[in-house]
């Protein structure tokens, strides 16, 4: 009977011993996660104040960052959005560090893989954001310049510039993430080259009439009416 | 020729860049004017050159003028000439900065600046630009010219009406380019920290005029006759010119908000010189091309224009696209709202200033085409009456700008 009770209670004893041994790790995890969340919340506040101080929202409007996050169906102010993103990022980091305190081998492996990949993921995200902003800015600049020069296909030209830049940015981001790098480079070369060739042919064929007009105008120039051009200033 | 930095009475600045063809005439006219009207004043002619490759500084040094051929006696102090290269951003403003530095260094009492590409300058311009400073104590003398009714469209449709509405001074050529000013004014200009902005380029003229008005310097204008100069560099892009002038205008509008928001009405500006009419060169205009760019611009820049003007005013502009060329008219009330909306968008920094102001070009060309067709059959006075109507519209709608200025 004694033996039976021993068999019956031994798992509870083992569990208790394991729990007594494990409890400090659990406590450490909870403390790390709670302290981490508080720290992340404080960092979010600092970021919000700093962004408001430097008029980050106006700058975002100007460079097209607001438009970018609106496309992702995010309707918060850019400063709030980035403050919250940093908060979430730090929260995930602290949860991972907290889990590491449990000293469970599977979680340890997961965490080390996550930490190794994190810089690549972050730089890819940065490349995407900055690339999108630059592509939008340059495309708008090309559109305005082309319109002011009287090009009929200004919008097409601006969209082509945007498309090429977006392809370039996506390839750079994928390359950074090390997702099938060989295929990415080959696909990029084919796609980029193909788009450039297609655009060259399209502009070449589409511009025959325009070129004809320019040449005709050039030869007519000598017969132009007398007088000078208008002075705008 | 180098001269000692001793006190002089008059400094005449000529900003140049590859003007060898015309600067000789300008320097001779200035020299003759100084000898004729200010023979007992110590004067210096400063050529501020932007690195000309055609020998412009040599032409300045060697331009000879025989005083005896025109005057009975030689001037007491023949004008010295110095040619200096300027530093900083290449442009007219940086050239003027070097001239202001020399004016302060030489403690000049009166100064003036004239363009190096002028063909119509006469010795009388020296008297007209400098006498109000020397004899009447004015600090800033703006020019008045006879110009072709089609010329100066940035001045006529934006800069003059807006400056007049904001500051209540009717300076007809605020970006004329040839100005007279006192030594005090030169010192004031030199102290301002604007030399890394568009003021260093085409923005200098509106900046000089507006700072003089806004800071309560004594201002007048003087009639110089016709302004005829070498054709501008065809490579000079209209969009860049518009950008540089309008950015300076809008920067000044931001800077002086507390001053202009309280100004109402129009103050008389003393005007000197004898007004007369002269024959002017014919001007070629291509209204059809202007309207093509206007229509393409309104279609292709729709999202940008809606962001600046709002859907209401954009709708009105969009409706103009369908009008046939001969009936095309840009309503002046709409134009004023467009300019004030651009000023407000610039102030709120909602988009890159370069994109913002370059997107104005198609609308500006539409307005210019409309003005040309309105005045094609009327004389100079009739054209001026149209500009006067536009000025009143700017004045009447000033409250819109004030009330939306947050």
Structural class of chain B: alpha/beta
Helix content of chain B: 40-55%
The beta-strand count of chain A equals 1
Q: What is the overall pLDDT average of chain A?
A: 82
From the N-terminal CA to the C-terminal CA of chain B, the straight-line distance is: 53 Å
Estimated structural class of chain A: mainly alpha
Instruction: Tell me, briefly, the overall form of chain B.
Output: globular
- Oligomer type: heterodimer
Structurally, the number of domains of chain B stands at: 2
Fourth-level CATH superfamily of the largest domain in chain B = Spore Coat Polysaccharide Biosynthesis Protein SpsA, Chain A
Taking strands numbered 1, 2, ... along the chain, how are they ordered across the largest sheet of chain B?
3-2-1-4-6-5-7-8
Count of separate DSSP helical elements of chain B? 17
Note the main sheet of chain A: none
Query: How many beta strands in the DSSP annotation of chain B?
Result: 9
Radius of gyration of chain A in whole Å, from Cα? Answer: 30 Å
Distance between the termini of chain A: 110 Å
On the 0 to 100 scale, the average pLDDT of chain B is 88
Please report which band the strand proportion of chain B falls in: under 5%, 5-15%, 15-25%, 25-35%, 35-45% or over 45%.
5-15%
Largest interface by Cβ-Cβ < 8 Å? A-B, 29 and 43 residues
